[in-house]
Design brief:
Chain lengths: ~230, ~260
């Protein structure tokens, strides 16, 4: 791209805000009532985070990997790709994250949590809860119709934020699982910023918070490994 | 060629949304009813080509259509395949005009386009740029290649092309298409805060959009401006700028000076 310095974010925006949010409306209508399943899966992760169990790391990783794969296929490839030719690259990124979650969390059983939540565990839980219950309210609170709601497990942003919350709550830092969600926060923020959406800074703000929290987790004195998986 | 055409950047990229597709088709219907002819698109514009094809099909392929498309791919060898895909999306037997979008791999694509023109597979060949980029290259290509069209950004505030490119186009008999006449809506939004100037009626303009368009199309080198819109009333308003008194050089200077002060 020559004369790259003459381009602004809006030069890369291929669609209008109306078209972008209508996409969620059409998508939500097409997949109903799968939103109820995604909410149940979110509640299941919440229960696993709070109550523990031998398989909780594997189960949480499996649910998250499934959600990332679903968003890659059902949202990016089947919907977003109709207005943004870059969506297939986003789909690849989301599929890779699903594989990483499956590999690290299910196959290698590396996603472990402390028996009781410490400060970072609570912070991660709060971020997860915000993705589940607060993120869907942003649209309606900023004047968008309820049908355009973005939900965990079916829309990219709340799925990404929820995953970041889980990763913060995990016993050890998982930088290899953070890269793609952080990149997506930047892409989503840039898209919404170009559309002058009032919630443009939400995802990038969460990303910065996560980076600070995980950096602290990495640098603090090493904690003993939890006994349970 | 009517001096006001129809751009499709952003506005026609509505994906599979049938409600929005129908709205675009209505914009096209109003466009053709009011005498418009040139519709311009690109493979870069997401679903815009498919939406144009949807509209043309719904309107039973208006015979007055002047189809302006682009090739936009870094590989010269893959240009013909992309052009054929674009043609199928539009549902036209051939394009009237094919342009190299933003000069991407322009030398390879121009060879293809000139060969297509010689074979009768396209009527005219052109190149495009936007927002003042690569004007030196544009100028060089205009001097050395047998172009029919050049597409550039020009409006009442962005007038750099008046210095060299528009005079060169006149000298070499190259038609000029003007993109981003409203700076993607930002210009008209800004101007609408101000009352219409008293001289607007002298040139038959009833809105700021018509003033801005009339300034562009009254330049002797300009062939057609291609504003994009999603609204039927706006497309009719835009085409209204093609009628009435054409501002002379003195009035054009007055128009530019007035807008610069706002």
């Amino acid at each position: 791209m020559s004369e790259w310095w003459t381009y602004s974010l809006s030069d890369f925006l291929l669609f209008s805000p109306r078209t972008y949010y209508r996409l969620f409306e059409i998508y939500n209508s097409a997949i109903w009532p799968l939103q109820l399943v995604s909410l149940a899966l979110g509640a299941a992760i919440l229960g696993l985070l709070l109550r523990g169990g031998v398989w909780r790391g594997r189960a949480i990783a499996a649910v998250l990997a499934g959600c990332w794969l679903w968003v890659a296929w059902a949202y990016f490839l089947k919907r977003y790709e109709t207005i943004n030719w870059a969506a297939e690259y986003f789909a690849i990124g989301f599929a890779v994250e699903a594989l990483l979650l499956a590999w690290s969390g299910i196959v290698r059983d590396r996603l472990r949590f402390r028996p009781s939540l410490d400060f970072l565990g609570l912070a991660g839980l709060c971020i997860f809860l915000s993705a589940l219950f607060i993120h869907p309210l942003i649209g309606p609170l900023t004047g968008r119709p309820w049908l355009q709601v973005e939900l965990f497990g079916v829309a990219p942003d709340p799925t990404v934020v929820a995953t970041l919350g889980v990763l913060v709550a995990a016993h050890r830092p998982h930088w290899e699982l953070l890269v793609i969600p952080i990149i997506w926060c930047a892409i989503s923020g840039a898209t919404l910023w170009a559309m002058q959406s009032p919630d443009a800074l939400v995802a990038p703000g969460v990303a910065v918070l996560i980076l600070v929290l995980v950096a602290w987790k990495t640098l603090r004195p090493r904690q003993p490994s939890p006994h349970e998986a | 060629m009517p001096v006001v055409g129809l751009g499709t950047w952003i506005t026609f990229n509505v994906g599979d949304d049938i409600v929005a597709r129908d709205a675009c088709a209505e914009v096209m219907r109003a466009f053709f009813e009011d005498g418009g002819r040139m519709i311009d698109s690109s493979p870069m514009y997401g679903s815009s080509q498919k939406v144009i094809g949807y509209g043309l099909d719904k309107l039973k392929q208006p015979p007055s259509l002047f189809s302006a498309e682009k090739v936009w791919i870094s590989s010269g060898g893959r240009g013909p395949g992309q052009i054929e895909a674009s043609r199928r999306y539009w549902g036209v037997p051939r394009f009237d005009l094919l342009q190299v979008h933003n000069l991407l791999s322009w030398d390879e694509h121009l060879r293809t386009l000139f060969a297509m023109k010689a074979a009768g597979q396209v009527r005219y060949v052109g190149i495009t740029t936007s927002e003042g980029r690569r004007h030196r290259d544009i100028e060089q290509i205009m001097r050395t290649q047998p172009l029919d069209f050049v597409q550039v950004t020009y409006n009442i505030l962005d007038r750099e092309v008046e210095d060299r490119i528009l005079p060169l186009a006149r000298d070499r008999g190259i038609a000029v298409i003007v993109n981003r006449p409203f700076r993607e809506g930002e210009l008209t939004k800004r101007l609408q805060r101000h009352p219409l100037p008293s001289w607007a009626t002298e040139i038959g303009c009833k809105s700021w959009a018509q003033i801005v368009l009339k300034f562009i199309v009254s330049h002797p080198a300009v062939t057609c401006a291609i504003p994009a819109t999603t609204r039927v009333d706006h497309v009719r308003e835009n085409l209204g700028a093609a009628h009435g008194r054409v501002p002379d050089a003195a009035m054009r200077a007055r128009m530019a000076a007035h807008v610069e002060k706002l």
